Amino acid sequence: MRIHLFVLLCLIGLAGNAQTAEELVKSVKSKLDRVTNYSATGKMKTNVIFLKAPIAKVQVYFKKPNQLRILNEKGISFIPKGSMNMDLSQLFIDPAGFDLLDLGADKKTGWRIIKLLPRDPVSEVVLSTIYVDAAAGLIRRSSTTTRENGTFELEMSYGTFAEYGLADKVIFSFNSQEYKLPKGITFDYDDGSGKKSAATGKPTKGRVEIQYTNYQINRGVPDSVFR
Amino acid sequence: MLALLWIELNKIFRRPRTYIAFGAMAAIVWLIQLALYFDGQAYVDLLLSNLSGSFEFSDLFKTQLLNGYLICFVILNTLLIQMPLLVALVAGDAIAGEASQGTLRFQLTRPISRTQLILVKFLASSVYVIALLLWLALLALLGSVLLFGTNDLVVLRSTGIEQMQMDDVFWRYLAAFGFAAVALTTVAALSLLLSVLADNPIGPIIATMSVVIVFTILSEMNIPIYDTTVKPWLFTTHMVAWKGFFYVQADAEGTTIRGSIENLPAVFRSLVILLGYIAFFLGISIYLFKRKDILT
What's the pLDDT tens digit per position in B240-279? Predict the structure, then answer.
């Protein structure tokens, strides 16, 4: 009898503390809303099967509602399509524009899995899934499926700027389409090794990792950066 | 020997037709630079059309991509296939030209051996090759860098893309031009050999061009039976190994390794094969010339 009473009290306690999906999203959004613009320096690593690229020093600029620019001022950087989705506030541009579906906690990490279903039937985003660290009020992972540009996945690690919902490290995964050029155009040198390129010529997943080193938050970003 | 080399160089560089090659190269380089200067965006769009589904390319990206290093790479791709023909114009004339003018017998009355004469003719042709390449470097590399500036070099291959940081590029060009000098000297040695066999320069010049064209076509064709039997031994297969300096190694995550070459042993193998060809052509030339009846 005592045991039953204890379990019941625990369940009531848990139910009392557990946030609803709406509350969780609201707390996450409130952090993100504190940032109207930022510029950040970072190191960008690109991992696409057909591309060999050096690690680049980049400058990332963001301005609400939906302007994001990654610039490599000293060199060349291949920026994946949909890189705008690297900024999490994109998920909540229209707070009333989606329904929430709470899938409960992830068994391994304990993060709450919430699906965001757009109400607009012709919305570019078909479905977003976010994994929220409820204790910290931060999105740790997200997956966004779009109508035309495939699925983007984000993984975030937080540090100094967690109070603004800004990650220290972002891993952005995207669909890369096939790449192949005729040898008649490229005049490749065949070194005779018979070694096949790792590139399959078929669509694969690409990955961009940005390690941020410094954020300048709400200090203004000129519009000219985004032109 | 040096005095003789000086005389040979004088002969080559005093002939107006020697400068046809320099003029032709300048015209091609300037035409390419001019076209890319005014319509480079269209060219870049064409290059990137295959990638537009995966990446977004801003105007700034396109401007950065179309830099002096890329333009030079494009020019070398175009010109290094044609340059053997220009080399043949001079090297093919070396012995057969003297024979047709009736000065070969006179030359051999001087106190020099036939071996020395062949070596001097070969050295003079090699100096001509180096002069052509220096001219090309001046126009294509320095000219493009001055016109378009420098930035990272992006090399497009049929199944992948190689990107090198701008301060990791210049030494690759030095190595590539050095390699091209050996490659073109191979053509000069072949042309000299054919020149020994003829009494009229037209024959060796056309024969060299024909050999280079046929071998290049064979090298570029993808026919399995030739891939392992014939192609590895054609000197034209190895003449394009200068591109190996622009193929880089990457770590497991696809990050370019600075200062690396994807397959350095293969580039060295090509270099050794070309040097072997030069020694072979030169050896045969000396052997045949020593036994040749000089009638003119």
Answer: 999 999 999 999 888 999 999 999 999 999 999 999 999 9
**Phi-psi region for residue A104, left (φ > 0), alpha (ψ -120 to 50) or beta?**
left
Could you give the ipTM of this predicted complex?
0.80
Judging contacts by C-beta atoms under 8 Å, the chain B residues touching residue A179 are: 50-51, 54, 159-161
Task: Give the other-Cβ count within 10 Å of A151's Cβ.
Answer: 16
Nearest chain A residue (CA) to B61: A76
> Which chain B residues have a beta carbon less than 8 Å from that of A177?
53-54
- Give chain B's radius of gyration (CA, Å): 21
Is B141 domain-assigned? yes
Q: Which amino acid is at B269?
A: R
Tell me the whole-structure pTM to 2 decimals. 0.87
For A165-214, the three-class secondary structure string (H helix, E strand, C coil) is CCEEEEEEEEEECCCCCCHHHHCCCCCCCCCCCCCCCCCEEEEEEEEEEE
Cβ of B230 under 8 Å from any chain A Cβ?
Answer: no
**Is B274 contained in some domain?**
yes
Residue B130, domain extent:
2-35+65-290
Right CATH number for A20-186+197-226 from 3.40.50, 2.50.20, 1.10.1200, 3.90.350?
Answer: 2.50.20
- Contact between B168 and B258 (Cβ < 8 Å): yes
Total domain count, chain B: 1
